[in-house]
Design a protein that fits this description.
Blueprint lengths: L1 E3 L18 H8 L3 E5 L2 E4 L1 H20 L3 E2 L5 E3 H6 L2 H5 L4 E4 L5 E4 L4 H11 L8 E10 L14 E11 L2 H21 L5 E4 L10 E7 L5 E6 L5 E3 L19 E4 L11 H6 L10 H4 L3 E5 L2 E5 L9 H8 L2 H8 L13 H6 L4 E3 L15 H11 L28 E16 L1 H6 L2 E3 L5 E3 L1 E8 H11 L1 E2 L2 E2 L10 E5 L3 H16 L4 E4 L6 H11 L3 E5 L7 E6 L5 E5 L3 H5 L1
Parallel strand pairs: 1-25, 4-8, 16-17, 24-25, 24-26
Antiparallel strand pairs: 2-3, 5-7, 6-7, 8-9, 9-21, 10-11, 11-18, 12-13, 12-18, 14-15, 15-16, 18-21, 19-20, 22-23, 26-27, 27-28
Helix pairs in contact: 1-14, 2-6, 2-14, 9-10
The structure holds adenosine-5'-triphosphate and magnesium ion (3 copies).
């Protein structure tokens, strides 16, 4: 492929765009890769489109390699599916909603778990059909509170979203692992530096969740890494060592109230507001209830043990206070897991003594009304002190803190860009939509799911964040719009040689950008080559008289004089 700058739809800018704050945004606009048309809405120009397409192509290849099949869904979707899953309220103001001419409610899809669940339910019936993994690369819409950083946080952005469907937990683990391995290959191929961190699963729900974070000063996520082992976690999800539970309890006052089964907690936000106790909406009950509940004295302790147990909060609360049963039933209209917050005031009003370990709900730990003896027992069980009626900020990790995984190393803090996020969703969506397979014994088997996202458009910006200098972009070979940028500094023989080299390189399958624009100084051409960021720049200049051209590496800055007859061979 040969792109001629004389006709390519690109204009480079000398000035940074006024609204741009981060390097990738400034450079992608200045280099003519993208243009802003709305808050968080960007047009892709030919060079940008090529980078985007190349990123998507890598994603497609690695999805195909693990047997994931590509489909494509609409973005304009009936609102009711997101009501059924409970996520309309979970997403809150992040969802763009609209009505059609008949008044029916629609959303612009923020993510597609609901639709993929419905699709598989419609077409698959037998256990023999499973497992299956489907994906799409499509536009997502989120009414982000603060669209920023150009492509980093759009309100309209390109995502690869994959969904796995399995018959059992072991199958889900395998599907998750396959996606995780594919992500490692994808991000390696894209030339990204990244860390895989333990994550909170957000509005998705589910138990196991990891993020791929690309370290960059402009990243909006903060994560910790250990100096001694490979522990890494988003500060939202930092865990302290699990206490001795699951049968290893030694304290006589502690008794495990084990409540396996499907959690049915409804939103307590409304409840909190209705009793005038206030409430928060910044965590998801679904995330936090995969734990073991202990009764210690007459207090209840929810301990954040990583694992597959789920707490039926209704049963737990009912064991303490019958009034809570009504409270849960009031919200039966919202049957699934919804964002909520069990305010200490609510529990106090109901006379419930309730302890929440900060490992369960970061930022919240409280001890409502428990007496000294209980508190002591709790501390024994947890192996640490609670701050009575206080708040422990789990996100408030300092450098230097001891590593919760190995205990030997200390934690270091870094900022990163979330480029991918993978979840073991479990049966949450299958429960909401009744997705079963008919098992070999004729009994229905509830399907278990995973979901796996890559921010394809964000990745373009993340690559730019990690591969640039003050003069411009410096694309890794795998995503560059062209491999070689051929620049002639003069007309005549230099121009003709540049043409010839460009066509010889192209004939060998190398993508070339040829600066054949008339009437520009060498300085302008060099500055543009550095701004545009092709990995190799071939300068056909004065030294051509001696039979040489100069080959510049945009990656390491090296400059080498090469005999003109050798240059094609050298680059190929
Ligand atoms: P963030 O924490 O940055 O808001 P998220 O956790 O809400 O992201 P997910 O729901 O996990 O995002 O979506 C999967 C992937 O989609 C993310 O890992 C990210 O790469 C990408 N993504 C999410 N929101 C945006 C956005 N507003 N603009 C561009 N890419 C996004
Ligand atoms: Mg988000
Ligand atoms: Mg996130
Ligand atoms: Mg995420």
């Amino acid at each position: 492929m040969l792109m001629r700058m004389s006709s390519l739809f690109v204009r480079t800018l000398r000035e940074d765009p006024a609204e741009a704050e981060v390097p990738s945004h400034k450079l992608l606009v200045r280099a003519g890769y993208v243009r802003r048309f709305a808050p968080g809405g960007y047009a892709w120009l030919p060079l940008g489109q090529r980078v985007l397409d190349r990123v998507a192509a890598v994603v497609r290849e690695e999805m195909a390699a693990i047997g994931a099949q590509e489909v494509s869904f609409p973005s304009l979707l009936p609102q009711e599916n997101y009501e059924t899953s409970g996520r309309l309220s979970a997403f809150g103001d992040d969802v763009f909603r609209l009505r059609d001419r008949r008044g029916a409610g629609y959303v612009l899809g923020p993510t597609h778990e609901e639709l993929f669940t419905l699709l598989v339910r419609d077409l698959y019936g037998s256990y023999r059909d499973y497992p299956v993994t489907l994906y799409q690369i499509g536009t997502k819409f989120r009414d982000e509170a603060r669209p920023r950083g150009g492509l980093l946080r759009g309100r309209e952005f390109l995502m690869k979203d994959a969904y796995s469907f399995d018959l059992d937990d072991e199958g889900l683990r395998r599907s998750y692992q396959a996606q995780r391995d594919a992500y490692i290959r994808i991000f390696n191929r894209l030339g990204l530096d990244y860390t895989i961190v333990a994550a909170m699963s957000g509005s998705m729900g589910g138990s196991v969740s990891e993020e791929f974070l690309a370290p960059a000063p402009v990243g909006e996520d903060t994560f910790v890494g250990c100096t001694a082992c490979d522990y890494a976690a988003n500060t939202e999800a930092v865990t302290t060592p699990a206490p001795a539970v699951n049968g290893e309890l030694t304290h006589p006052a502690a008794e495990v109230i084990d409540t396996p089964g499907t959690p049915t907690i409804a939103s307590l936000v409304e409840y909190a507001n209705s009793v005038g106790a206030g409430g928060r909406t910044d965590w998801t009950a679904a995330d936090t209830l995969k734990n073991v509940v202990l009764r210690v004295g007459d207090s209840i302790l929810v301990v954040g043990v990583p694992g597959d147990r789920e707490v039926d909060l209704k049963r737990v609360s009912a064991a303490l206070h019958p009034a809570t049963v009504e409270m849960f039933d009031d919200f039966a209209a919202q049957p699934d897991l919804v964002r909520g917050y069990i305010g200490p005031q609510v529990l106090a009003k109901l006379g419930i003594r309730y302890l929440v370990d900060p490992r369960v709900v970061p930022g919240t730990a409280w001890l409502t009304g428990a007496n000294e003896a209980d508190r002591h027992a709790v501390n024994v069980v947890c192996g640490r002190d609670f701050v009575p009626d206080g708040t422990i900020e789990a996100a408030d990790v300092r450098e230097g803190d001891a590593c919760p995984a190995c205990g030997d190393g200390s934690l270091t803090l870094r900022r990163g860009i979330e480029i991918g996020h993978i979840f073991q969703l479990g049966r949450r969506f299958a429960d909401a939509f009744g997705l079963d397979a008919l098992g070999p014994d004729g009994q229905p088997v509830r399907i278990t799911m995973g979901s796996y996202g890559v921010g394809v458009s964000r990745v373009v910006a993340a690559i730019a964040e990690q591969h640039h200098d003050e003069r411009g972009l410096a694309w890794p070979e795998s995503v560059a719009p062209a491999f070689a940028h051929v620049v002639a500094t003069g007309k005549g023989e230099q121009g003709e040689t540049a043409e010839r080299l460009a066509s010889e390189l192209t004939a060998r399958g190398i993508d070339v950008l040829l600066d054949d624009r008339p009437g520009l100084s060498a300085g302008v051409r060099f500055a543009d080559a550095e701004l545009l960021g092709m990995p190799v720049v071939v300068v056909v200049g004065r030294r051509l008289a001696d039979g040489y051209v100069e080959v510049r590496s945009r990656i390491d800055g090296s400059r080498t004089d090469v005999p003109v007859d050798d240059v094609v061979e050298l680059i190929d």
